[in-house]
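Problem: given the chain below (65 residues), write out its structure.
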Amino acid sequence: MSIEPDRLSPVQDEFYQALMAAHAGLDETESHALNARLVLMLANRIGDVNVLTQLLQSARSYSND
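Solution.
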């Protein structure tokens, strides 16, 4: 699944900074919990299981190479 068009452009850096600020001062467990809550909140906002499943598959297909 393509995640285009880039709906954050041109403010994607602002979002990344806000995301990093939300994690500032958290330990690893707290950071993982924040990510889990954020994923569930975004999933609820999207509200389409088919889209969410496609996004999960797309995210999983990325490698660390």
